[in-house]
Amino acid sequence: MLMAAHSTARTAPTTRGTARDAILTATLRLVASEGVDAVTHRRVAELAGVSPGSTTHHFSGREELLREAFRHYLNGGNDLFDALFEAAEQDEDVSLRVVGDVFVSLVEREFADPSLVRAEYELLLFASKDDELSRVVVSWESRLAGALAAILERAGVRRPTEAARSLMNFVRGFELERLVQPKLGPDDFQRRLIPLLRALCVPSEGEE
């Protein structure tokens, strides 16, 4: 959810670092196209353009390869946190329009490579059965909720933490719907987002 898009190009790695990145990107591509069960060192090596020995050199087993691929994917969202915290720290007031623009621009990046959304959900299912990766995902989402809550608070949203979680769930729901209805686009997302953001600013009964 709300991740930065990874490059789709297949390039021959030239250094140890790029070889590792190529392997992780290839793993994500394979998960997106064929699912977690399709991941093997040989298949990944073929897609990454490296020798099979290179994958076993960097990753001791299939589980480690999947864990690190998902970490690689999550780390691609670091600029998301930078954008949210920067918006929350602005001197001027943050309006709901600004919040909406941030969400729409971030989701538009996902639309540039929808296959990675499939990879994300495949790996979330894998994480549900892997305690180590589950902790990584929970930590990442807690950080995201905190970043969203900070900007929502600046925009005058009541109960910003709960609102942030609600918005995260809203985005996940839209992503899942789009997996089976690929014609949905950013305009559809924006039409649904605007009334939700407005509702978040409505005081609850008994609140001033």
Can you identify the CATH class of the largest domain?
Mainly Alpha
Quantity of strands, as a count: 0
Overall pLDDT confidence? 82
What fraction of residues sit in β-strands? under 5%
CATH fold descriptor of the largest domain: Tetracycline Repressor, domain 2
The residue ranges in which pLDDT falls below 50 over 5 or more consecutive positions are 4-15
Domain tally = 2
What is the CATH architecture annotation of the largest domain? Orthogonal Bundle
Topology, pairings included?
Blueprint: H1 16-34, H2 41-48, H3 52-58, H4 62-75, H5 78-88, H6 96-111, H7 115-127, H8 131-154, H9 160-180, H10 186-200
Features:
208 residues; mainly alpha; Arc Repressor Mutant, subunit A; 2 domains
Give structural notes.
The protein is mainly α and 208 residues long. The chain folds into 2 domains: 16-62, Homeodomain-like (Arc Repressor Mutant, subunit A), CATH 1.10.10; 76-200, Tetracycline Repressor, domain 2. 71% of the residues lie in helices and 0% in strands. α2 (41-48) crosses α3 and α5 (78-88) runs parallel beside α8 (131-154). The two termini are 34 Å apart.
